[in-house]
Design a protein that fits this description.
6% strand; three-stranded parallel sheet; mainly alpha; 13 helices; Rossmann fold; binds tryptophan
């Protein structure tokens, strides 16, 4: 059976981009067609300057929103990365397989490290090794499919390289996974800068619809979206990225097709108005469910506890196998204990 693993970092409030680009498909399709694990990768949130209280808050919120989006803990596994030791155990072994040069070539590392240095901050070593931890996340579970955004494709490529190299050197241990990228229309762009993706770590929230934004805030952001010069509504991602983004969002929320929706509208104003309402309606059930879950923190904690236990049971044997394969002796049970049996 296909196994799906994906991770989401608790480094910002989740956005409409996370939902339409990833979470909705996990909830509506992936969890039913494959054995799926969805992980709030809290360890990854420590690779840049961080505030412990914020990481705690966002980890809880991210897990709660995953459940609110429709992930069913009876069908898939939802858990926090730091609750399962196998991730860091395996990460170290993979550090012994990865090379320093390989890590320094990672585009995201280069960009983020440059930014940190520009700000006069030191770069955490974990920022450099982060893709190895991500590889461990994936390989520990024997996942074949890894749904991620375009920006993570290089890290999944690295994961494949490490899996193949480990298997060649130490014997077959890991499934070689592949990235599954979202379809083009599922890529939601920033409403103020429609050539840039709607990311949760964006500095300004004006172009970003957060999943927990109140309906009036959502309306305001969509109505103020940057559109293109020109008047008629056409679907052209290259020439009219602002309007195309609105059409994509409207289509994603209503189940329509962006090209045929373009024919329906004769002004940007009416397109924005309908898109705003469509987004409000798409978020309504998710927000209602989120409120219910927040009222029952013990339930969410229970889900995460059970999730971690299920995840550990899957990861443990693979990581133990890797420990043996690479040359580490198994711990031997105390003689008195085995004799007593
Ligand atoms: N690095 C990913 C991101 O920034 C998050 C992530 C961590 C992840 N571990 C993963 C995604 C494993 C998929 C699989 O989005």
């Amino acid at each position: 059976m296909t196994r799906v693993f994906s991770g989401i970092q608790p480094t910002g409030h989740l956005t409409l981009g996370n939902y339409l680009g990833a979470m909705r498909r996990w909830a509506e399709a992936d969890q039913y067609r494959a054995e799926s694990l969805f992980c709030v990768v809290d360890l990854h949130a420590l690779t840049m300057d961080h505030d412990p209280a914020r990481v705690r808050r966002l980890s809880r919120q991210t897990a709660t929103l995953l459940l609110a989006s429709g992930l069913d803990p009876d069908v898939c596994t939802v858990f926090l990365q730091s609750h399962v030791d196998e991730h860091t155990r395996l990460s170290y072994l993979l550090e012994c397989v990865a090379s320093d040069g390989e890590m320094r070539r990672m585009i995201q590392y280069k960009e983020k490290a440059a930014k940190e240095r520009e700000r006069g901050r030191s770069v955490r070593l974990s920022l450099l090794t982060y893709p190895v931890l991500m590889a461990a996340d994936i390989l520990a579970y024997g996942a074949n499919e890894v749904p991620v955004g375009e920006d993570q494709a290089q890290h999944v490529e690295l994961t494949r390289d490490l899996a193949v190299r480990f298997n060649q050197r130490y014997g077959h241990t890991f499934v070689v996974p592949r990235a599954t990228l979202p379809p083009v229309g599922a890529r939601v762009m920033n409403l103020q800068e429609p050539t840039r993706k709607m990311g949760k770590s964006d500095d300004s929230g004006a172009g970003v619809v957060y999943l927990l934004d109140e309906p009036d805030v959502v309306r305001k952001k969509v109505l103020r979206a940057v559109t293109d010069s020109g008047r008629e509504v056409v679907y052209d991602r290259e020439e009219r990225p602002g309007v195309a983004n609105l059409l994509d969002v409207l289509a994603a929320c209503t189940g329509g097709n962006p090209e045929s929706l373009a024919d329906v509208y004769d002004s940007y104003g009416s397109l924005k108005k309908d898109t705003a309402e469509a987004v409000v309606e798409a978020l309504r059930p998710l927000q209602a469910r989120h409120r219910e879950l927040c009222a029952d923190p013990a339930y969410v904690e229970g889900v995460l506890r059970d999730g971690a236990e299920k995840a550990r049971a899957v990861a443990r044997p693979t990581v133990d196998t890797a420990y043996r394969a690479i040359g580490l002796l198994p711990p031997v049970a105390e003689p008195s204990l085995s004799a007593a049996r």
